[in-house]
Automatic annotation (TrEMBL):
Lineage top rank: taxon: Bacteria
Full protein stretch here: 145 to 623 of 721
Keyword field: Cytoplasm, GTP-binding, Initiation factor, Nucleotide-binding, Protein biosynthesis
Family, similarity comment: Belongs to the TRAFAC class translation factor GTPase superfamily. Classic translation factor GTPase family. IF-2 subfamily.
Protein known as: Translation initiation factor IF-2
Organism: Jeotgalibacillus salarius
Amino acid sequence: ESLTVAALAKKLHREPTEVVKKLFMVGVMATVNQELDKDTIELICEDYGVEVEEEILVDSTDLETYFDEEVEAGKMIERPAVVTIMGHVDHGKTTLLDSIRKTKVTAGEAGGITQHIGAYQIDNDGKKITFLDTPGHAAFTTMRARGAKVTDITILVVAADDGVMPQTVEAINHAKAAEVPIIIAVNKMDKQAANPDRVMQELTEHGLVSEAWGGDTIFVPVSALNGDGIDNLLEMIGLVSEVEELKADPTRRAMGTVIEAELDKGRGSVATLLVQDGTLRVGDPIVVGNTFGRVRAMVNDIGRRVKEAGPSTPVEITGLNDVPLAGDRFVVFEDEKTARSIGESRAQQALQAQRGEKTRVSLDNLFEQMKQGEMKDLNVIVKGDVQGSVEAVAASLLKIEVEGVNVKIIHTAVGAITESDITLAAASNAIVIGFNVRPDANAKRAADAEQVDVRLHRIIYKVIEEIESAMTGLLDPEF
Ligand code: GDP
């Protein structure tokens, strides 16, 4: 929760120097780029007769921090387990997901159209289980990398005729890293070549020892193709869920994670959300990652419109102002105004962070970037006063020989450096050389904003000397 003096000044529509003076008056010595804490910001705002809105103070903290109501143990009820299926390619993940879904669609839902929304829920003897239906650990880890923990149980599919393969091991490591319990589905048991003992043997080497052999890992022989053993597998999921004591409070505002999202031509932003706590309702003001809106419509995994969705339920929603990312968190807010203000400021901060992340090439950091192997070409734009000088500069630059990096002239022209030169440079990570020309006012502003390195010269050999020293790491830092 902080702002620099300059940023605060901008929000207050004042000159930064004025704010610095104001700060001085209240006993805070600060420079323009200094970060101010919340109290100081409030003090200054008060002085200007401005009320500090939450908007100003929102930072990019996890959305969860807006979901900090205290847990009331009495309201917690059991929630369905969320299960991910992982395993080596062709071992039967997709077939298993399909066959579970087919066998367990409840009678009343039979007429519904199966809809791919990224997850589905089944009813197993009155107990629900949610399956994420993007198999594989890539999706799992992408979500985890974004801070989302959605999976309660992993089903590791291992083909009995093939045994432990590289992606089996990867999947084990991903599940272990996430500390998610693993159930082994020994698949393709219908095959002649099925050898479940070998699977058990091989998994022992990865710390997964079957109960039959004195360990605590559940192994279930199945045939995803003909449905054998699926009931047993679901029963085991139920058992593990009980041990895990999965609970949630359906009376709270909802929170959870984006399973997938896309832009739909007709409906706009469409996102599948997994409700992890609370109950999500149509009309709820919501912040989803860096997007916000109101839940306009909700559709469940069989394509039915629903009005609410409780814990562990996947639903597809519309009504967001933009498309969030898989793994983004969502939180429902009391009122739309707060949701909007938090959503907007998150989007803005994300944009700024994104800009900050990209290190633009400059002659000062060129050598560093070369050393890190990030630079193969030094892209250059040359502007000059006459055609002859532009050509001469470009030709001399191309003659520079430094190991590991090439000069690449991406644009040359006669005339002052313009905003469009800067835009091109920014998009191509290039530097701009002005020979006997200067940037115009717009270009100057753009170069500052986009952090494009613009070098002005009057003598050719100075241009070459500067670029050469930058490439060899001998450039004196410029202040
Ligand atoms: P994934 O890559 O792990 O999703 O594997 P798939 O579900 O696409 O299955 C790969 C192949 O194995 C397909 O041709 C399936 O029909 C077949 N398969 C899957 N499960 C079984 C099974 O239990 N028995 C037999 N015989 N074949 C299976």
